[in-house]
Amino acid sequence: MATPETDISELSESQQVALQTYTSVTDQDVQAAIPLLQRSQWNVEIAIAKFFDGEGPDPVAEALAAQSNPPPQARRQENLQQSLLRGPSGRNSPNRPDAAPRIVPQSADQLVPRPSLILAILYKPFQLLYKLFSFPLNFLAYLFPFLPRLFRRDTTSGTVRRRVDTSGRKPLNPDDAELRVQREFTEEYGENELPWSNKGYAACLDQAKRDYGFLLVILLSPEHDETSSFCSEVLMNAEVIQFFRDPANRITLWVGDVRDSEAYQVSTALKCNKFPFTALICQTPEVSSTAMSVVARSTGPTNARTYLAELRPKLAARSETLETSRQAQVFQNAERNLRQEQESAYERSLAQDREKARLKREAEAAVAAAEKAKLQEELDAADLAAKKEQWRRWRASEINAEPGADEKDVVRIALKMPEAARIMRRFRASDSMMDLYDFVECYEYLQDSESSEKVPEKPEDYEHEYRFRLVSTLPRVVYEAELAATIGDKVGRNGNLIVEPIVEEDDEE
């Protein structure tokens, strides 16, 4: 059953901030991240730990189930030896590896910047006063060591761990802090070939989890006397460096200085109480499919041979399991890539089909538009021809009759028609050239003027266009259809004119 999607706008401002922080670290889908954050009471650190280490059983749900179904009371029979073997955690599987801590990296904007020069000058008197008053108190604490313990509140049942004094050490982000550790190590012990990661602990843990490899965590404390001998005799040993750099071991090396914030958090989470400290971390499928656990530890001073003897068996025992998981991951990636290629090919084929269908629709639309335009042209041409026919019949009824023989001021004109016919016609000298053109245009209808057909009216929205011109030869003179010019002024008393059709360029072609 599909889970309904949650509207992000319905979340509160603090919940949206927690969701943004969680997705920026885990890169998980938003709709899949919201239920996990809800189960974690919107605690970002708990949700990130569940995502990377696997989500175990819910203690609240188990407690409610235990209340509803109380187990039968049985007497507990256990001796001192069994209690010691069971350990303080009360688990029956002492060989179960401890979960590797997940440290949320501190963003750069949360780092406390150093004050400016002006503020440092202003704060300097207060620092001097603080040192002036703290010196007698520190001297009393040195003389009477029991006095600080009287005012100290012990909140732990085990050994009280002393926080490393980081005063005077500039806080940096995890990547820059790791580069500083590398630089300080090189300056102290010389050039080396250690495979430095140049990344923070969280990034190295994610890389080891992603590559199904090993993460070797080394925590150093410059305040301990054994640190110098461990670095110079163990870490600088050629056999140890070869073990770290062996590609078959797939080791990601991370070295931390407990004076840095991230390294101190890692040491606290790993319960480190003795330096130098080494932890080998890898995936443990028996705990969870995505759990990262500590499979080997090495604390205190040691030599190179003993150091490798502690790490090599644990690494060899886990290599086969990790190789199996790695091959399974490769197979899953190959299947996913193949599926993506198939989906991509299907999308390309679907896009090609859509493009073909679109081109076909466009071609059909173009053909339909051309047919429609052609039909419209035919309709317009037929309408124009009908209006022209109506205009010629109407104009034929409006042409004046030929003047009689007894009238004076008459012009005799011989017209050579296109059909090789010759017409003789008399016109009044006061008639316009437009009347002469109308006579030629409507000549065939003048022959049928005595018919009983009803004379049509003048067509509306029509402007007649003459498709011929009247010219005379020797010399050639073209007489235009002008309403203001009279026949007597243009032609004279007699005229011999030719009706010359106007041929357009398209018709000539």
Q: Mind explaining what this structure looks like?
A:
The longest helix is centred in the last third of the chain and has 95 residues, at 304-398. The protein has helices spanning 13-26, 30-39, 44-53, 59-68, 80-86, 117-143, 146-151, 174-189, 201-211, 226-235, 238-245, 261-269, 304-398, 433-441, 443-446, 487-490, 505-508, and strands spanning 98-99, 214-220, 251-257, 277-283, 292-299, 410-416, 422-428, 468-472, 477-479, 494-501. It folds into 3 domains: 7-62, Ubiquitin-associated (UBA) domain (Helicase, Ruva Protein, domain 3), CATH 1.10.8; 108-153 and 163-335, Glutaredoxin, CATH 3.40.30; 399-508, Phosphatidylinositol 3-kinase Catalytic Subunit, Chain A, domain 1 (Ubiquitin-like (UB roll), Roll), CATH 3.10.20. Strand 4 (277-283) and strand 5 (292-299) form a beta hairpin. The chain is built from 17 helices and 10 strands. Helix 1 (13-26) packs across helix 2 and helix 1 packs parallel to helix 3 (44-53). With 509 residues, the protein is an alpha+beta fold. Residues 356-392 form a coiled coil.
